[in-house]
Here is the input.
Amino acid sequence: MSGGYRQQPGSPGKVTRKDGKRVAGKQAFPPPGSGGSKPTMAPRDLDFIPELVGGREAQPAGAHVHDRARTGTSVGKPTALVDSNAKVTGQAWYGDDVRLANEVIGKILRSPHHYARIKSIDTSKVEALPGVLAVATGADSPHQFGVLPVTKDEHAMAVDKVRHVGDLVASVAAVDEATAMAALNLFEVEYEVLEPVFDPKKGLEDVDEPIHWRGKYHLARTNVQKRVFQEFGDRSLVQKPLASSHGKWKMAGVHHGFTEPHAVVAHWGPNGRLQLYTPQQVPHYTHRALATVLDVPMHQINVIRTFVGGGFGGKSDPFPHEMCAAILSRKAGRPVRITFDREEVYWINRGRHPSHIEVKMTADDDARISGFDIDALIDGGGFASFGHVTSYYNGVLATAPYELGSFHYTGARVWTNKPASGAMRGHGAVNTRCAVEVGLDEMADQMKVDPMDLRLANLLPPHSRTISGFRITSNGMREALEKVREGSQWDTKFRQMPLGKGIGIGCGFFISGSGLPIHWDPNRFPHATVHIQVDMDGGVTVHTGAADIGQGSTTAIAQVVSEVLALPLEMIHVKCHESDTSPVDLGSYSSRVTFMNANAAIRAALEIREQLLKAAWEILGYHPNNLVLNDRRIYYKHDPAIGTSYLKALHKAQEDKGALIASGAYRSPPMGGVHKGAAAGLAPAYSFSAYVAEVDVDVETGMIKCTKVWAAHDCGKALNPLAVKGQIIGSCHMGLGQVLSEKMVYGRTGHLQNPNLLDYKIPSVHEMPHVEPIIVESCDPEGPFGAKEAGEGPLLPILPAVVNAVYDAIGIRLRDLPLTPDVVFKGIEKGMKAAGVDDPLDLAPPRVEHGELQPLLVKRAAEHKIRDQARQRSEDTSPYVNGVLFGFDPNIPLEDQVEGWRMATEPDPEQLAALGLAGKAWLKKEQRHMGGDE
Amino acid sequence: MVGTEHVEMIPVAKKEIWSAEVNGRPVEVLAPSNAILLDVLRDKVGTLGVKRGCDLGTCGCCSVLIDGTPRLSCLCLAGQVEGSSIITVEGLSEGAHLAPIQSCFAEYGGSQCGFCTPGFLVTAQALLNENNNPSDKEVANAIEGNLCRCTGYQQIVESIQAAAAIHRGEVEPAAPASDPHPDPHPTGPEEPQMPPGHAR
Here is the structure.
């Protein structure tokens, strides 16, 4: 090592005192950069190095751009979450665990009315109460905010109107909770009660007082927040179907049910900067909203994300209570803590939209899927939240994994006087996916074919385009289907089990990171940025804004950095809590974190690695191409004895410049079409999944028990198989809750009846079946080491799998979720009437005898399998667009191929007469087209 | 908290000295006579590892061991357990040595977001104290009062079974992560051991 800084590792054993004490300056501590307790270099783990770069890890999908960055250190190995020790010792700090000196307690006054105009608020009695330090009302927060820039319709506290029971009216900060609660009684609020709307169907009608007013863009005087129309393909294909399915679905709203209630601590420091501690999935959006609402520049706010006790989309909005805490703290001059009780969690909601979904689908003579016709009316509650996007997702995320002849979607999201719906795991895709998959099952029955083969013979291949123009890269759908078919012994069970026992299949398709950053042009700023800093001690500090909500994103980022630099995981320290120190990150939603942040982290780590290798080149005299990184050491690839330690190389690299610093960014490639709404559903990669579920149905009571699930999910490459399996099983749990027991119950008077965990039925350990998680690795060409998402997609297939299994068990199609015993038994009674039997035990379970189409499908599936394998390995790089199955030439633009091929985002005048429920929103005109000019 | 009429707080209760042994340490705090144990533990004693999830006894996040029995601290008046020995999640480990149940939850994915974890840990510890060879059914019965939204319970059951194996002595417990260097090696990878048979 050359001159300059030289760290003394010390050498115990040489100099010891007789009394056994250590000699000053010669302590026995491991040399810096040595990784602490592991003194010997671990052998190179060839099992985790891809075969194309000399390892033994199989690569059925071919080479990956990150192969050379693999060192076999931690990617692909089951890894405990890096913060798990904090969690198991009770030291993880969640929102309510932030206790600042001198704190005061904030409480929120909530609306008792569904819909009312606030005429006046008298706070004088509150202010007079001893112990009250600050009072705030809507007058303190005139600025609107919202998670999407296009739909900012929320206030910190109600201005003018309250829009649902539980809407925020005012807030108060007092020395303790009892005083704050007492203060709430002293507000004198005068309301003028307005006519509320609860039924989303009524939301399509004109009313005197729409819940929000959008000026010239408002749709007549309705409560429609967003309407969508999309049509692609050749609608003439649906004219003479061989099989068709028509299902009308009613799906109840569900809540995320995370265990940690919302909590926030706001503290305006003595320097006039705001520190806000909040369990947030999207701290950056909160940051932006705070700046708007409080009228201070963003750099005067430091948003500190605490540990998040479960998010699932429920903590991915900037929330009004966060603004309240900040406003109160500004007034009180002391830290303010607001913690929700469980009931308040339901008032803020943002759960899955209650939906009315109608799906018509057809198949042609060759059992090709000639058309999807989806109509989704979703109940948005009082605010927009993510609803703009949800309205699109309900349709566009059904355009894959199948090859479609045509696609027609009408959707509408309406405001109602209920707590706002928003994003929840599987955002927007879950309900329609369930309807679509059940429809396919029904068509398979009509065609006398196995639904598994129907799917296998109609899949889009890897590296193709969907009918709406989404770019699919890696695609493990086929493998997932084959694996669950084999694992569940499908062929010996389907349609062969006795009454009350059933098996069903469902598939899923989900985005792996939203292709467009909400707040900026993707060409100007990247999606994600990660900074890495390595100082003399050898520890690697990684700064990222990625919000770990329990899914293990921090671990994933630590893993990829550890992999690239060949350092043990303990040497990687991820700093991701503070907006002051982390680069801007959009947060944890749309399953983007692993894909985007890990990609950025790899880029930054590669830059560090390059500097280390250059330094090793100077020390060893071998070109970096001939050097190998392995466990804190860099050596000549043909002779491991010729090498240098990581630390020596690091210190060499640090000469003259100190700490090594690198920044990496990820930006999605340009994608997508130009039609209105083309950006919704765009993603740099998509995940695929297939589940088979087995159920027991008690035909005498209608009770359903899911007994076993085989769950195959294509996550590209499992960076951490332990976490991926956890996500798959956890998704099953959440999906099972939605399909079997969970429901937000609104009574006749529009009140939410079950805002607590006792009446809102989350499955307990006894309701969980055994889940067999199966990881499918299709190795995405753009994913970090090939990885794609695994957090949301795995939820989708469980719903249709269970619904289809219930049909297999009792022969009755149920389309009213959740399938609680009363719903099921009503269905059974209907089935008994239709079958003319008096005893439910006499019902006949469905049976199938394969028709002449079955061998045709099996043959086509086999041909497509060969096609897919070639495309997956990029041997066949010819373009493939949706429609090739219908005889289209992928080299010619689709609209030029068939007379009737069209792409439309607005209905034709003649279509207006035949629109579905949500489509009726297109019968209305916007104010600007009605002469209204407000 | 919705509605114009809020229930008046119970007239200010008299504050009394509440004493108990929390995690082996005698504790004396001033608390209202009607205080809930959960509030006392979080706000007065400072054991913030005890989590508040629902206030209704439905989620199990606030479970603590009271004289060895798992109980929900949100449904328990502090006065009821005056003088008892209370173990929270903070009291499970022995110094830097995590209890087997803790290290297994980390290692087997029993903890994702971690909010329900303290409740699961003390409940599972109570089970293992009585039965170090539980069947999956017995494990499920023990944790049926705890809700977890992340894991789907499967990896929790696996973690508890792995911890049971350590309790039975079949598996060695893991070394504590915070133990700096159980086998200090001064040379470190500066002079690594080469693969066997390799000529220096």
Notes: Chain B touches chain A through 80 residues (CB under 8 Å). Residues 117-130 of chain B form the longest helix (14 residues). The CA atoms of residues 127 and 165 of chain B lie 13 Å apart.
